Fold this protein.
Amino acid sequence: MTQSDTAGAPTTSDIFDSSSDFASMGLRSSVLRGIDAAGFEHPTDIQAKLIPAVLTGRDVIGQARTGTGKTAAFGLPILHLADKDTPMQSLILTPTRELAAQVASELEELGRFTPVRTSCIIGGESMQQQSRSVKRGGHILVGTPGRVMDMQGRREISFDNVRFVVLDEVDRMLDIGFREDIRKILKSITQPHQTVFVSATISEEIDRLGRSYMRQDVERITTTAGSLTVSQVDQKYISVMPWDKKQLLLYLLRHESLDTTLVFCRTKATVGRVAVYLREKGINVRELHGDMAQQKRNRVMQSMRKGNLDVLVASDLAARGLDIEHISHVINYDLPEDSEVYVHRIGRTARAGRRGCAWSFVTPEQGQLLTEIEKLTGAMIEKLEYNDFTPGPIPDDKKEMFKPREVKSHDQIMQGYSQRAERAVDEGLSDSDRKQMFPDGVEPKSKPKRTLGSRMRTRRRR
């Protein structure tokens, strides 16, 4: 590799602060055990700066991009400072359901050796079930502003014990219209509390929000280098039907020149199925998911670091903190629902000045997801064509779902219009009924004649 190849490339030191370690931060031993179990070795730049600042008790505004480990940066101090006897003492607001679920899962993972429990409340899920979860004594509440406001208005949750508030990705929350909800929530927390804002950008509006709801001694933290940047990652996508994914993955592993490959799946069940399939086909593969025993996880990680493994199939949670330099390819077997998770994933390649590749399997209904990813990364993701790959037949249980729709002919369309127009005249429909029947504003003034191959006839209006 020439010097020009590595110029401006992200290195491990851009993201991780190898001069620092978690043990020196004064965190509880139970929290340190969770960090070790999650596979974190060194803190990232934002973690090395934000954790000590939050532990001092000051309000903090931290600027950090996606993929820099910001959840652990504010989550670890919360776990360290939590009082096991006080319910709902920490409130974390996120802009999306997916991010809320992701933050809650990561805090549960990091706090597995502590008595601290996390509840997640988001729209689209049962409010009764979420209310029961909160009332069982969750210490940390993660949610979207809309659902938090709703449940607080119904007296399902109370802010009486809240002494720690985090606004994660506050810039996105403001962009998508949570401005008033945020203000109402912050205004409702009247007792003394510590506040942390985390944002990719710090705008004047965020500054104003901080001045309104933070104390005077606000600490500002900025990380300029950083983010698991995508500039050194060659991104491609491949169109595939859901039932062809396993075969396509096997095709790529056999026909492409891949070094160590990391395959991401959405669920633990899919991780297991894909790993078993590849193993049966003779691929040197291991799996990694959140329910694995720590000893087994350590063995997998050791094999990965030594280069004794060709393919690792993993879930998002299990791959948190994974920092292995020789991963050449990341394959998104399942495209993530949150585009920010995508950035986390592909940041596992292109380490230590190397370039990397990220290939994503995209099914027909995921076009919008791909567009959102392109907007976030600022990169147009090109399509990869594999003409030599032969897709399989549609499975019997999918045939009805993927049955081609009948395309109506021009004559059929015109005949339908003629019938509707005649009904409108014959039945004397009201103006509102006409507008519903003719949304384009065309209102028949007289009964149309039958011309589409049928004999013309007229009827008197009754």
Summary: Confidence is low (pLDDT under 50) at residues 1-13, 443-462. Residues 10-222 form a domain with the Rossmann fold fold (CATH 3.40.50.300). The longest strand covers residues 233-239.
